[in-house]
Amino acid sequence: MAEAFPDAGLAPTDDERADYYRWLFFAAGPLEAAITNKSMGFTVDPDKERMAGYGNYDQVVDVLDQKLSVSDYICGDRFTMADVYVGAHVDWGQQFGSLPERDSFQAYARRLRDRAAYKASKAVDAALLPDQPTG
C-alpha cells in the first residue's frame, strides 16, 4: 500500500529500506510465531530452539525491546508503513498482555496512539463495533 500510494509518505526511503523489510519480516515471522506459541501454551524445548526459527519468546521480545529502545519508529525517526504492521503487534500486545509491559513498548504504543490517523481509525472501529474495546 505504501508503494501504491507514495504521496502518503509511508514508503521507505532507500536508506530506510533494509530496516523496513527486516522488521516487517521479523514481525510476520519470529514475533508472531513466538506470541502465538506462548499464547497457546507451547514452549520450545531449549535444545530445539534453533529449529523453531525464532529461538524462544524471551529472545524475540528482547530483540524488539532493544530496537524500540533506540529508535522512535521502525525506520528511525519517522513513521512508515512498517510501523503500521509492527505497531499493531505492539499495540495489541500491550492491550491484551501478549507482550510484557516494557518501557520501550509502552512509549512506542503511546507514540502510535497519539497519531491523528490512529485516532481516526479507532473512531471508525468504535462506530462499527460500539460494544467492543478499541484501545
Please explain how this structure is put together.
With about 140 residues, this protein is mostly helical. It has a single domain (about 15-125), classed as Glutathione S-transferase Yfyf (Class Pi), Chain A, domain 2 (Up-down Bundle), CATH 1.20.1050. Helix content is about 60%, strand content about 0%. The protein is built from six helices and no strands. Helix 1 (about 15-40) packs antiparallel against helix 3 (about 55-70), helix 1 packs parallel to helix 4 (about 80-95) and helix 3 (about 55-70) crosses helix 5 (about 105-115). The longest helix has 23 residues, at about 15-40.
Summing up helix and strand content along with how strands pair, one would put the structural category as mainly alpha
Number of helices: 6
- Tally of separate domains: 1
Average of pLDDT: 93
Helix content: 55-70%
Residue share in β-strands: under 5%
- What is the C-alpha radius of gyration, as a whole number of Å? 16 Å
The total count of strands amounts to 0
Order of helices and strands: HHHHHH
- N→C terminal distance: 24 Å
CATH topology: Glutathione S-transferase Yfyf (Class Pi), Chain A, domain 2
CATH class: Mainly Alpha
Biggest beta sheet attributes:
none
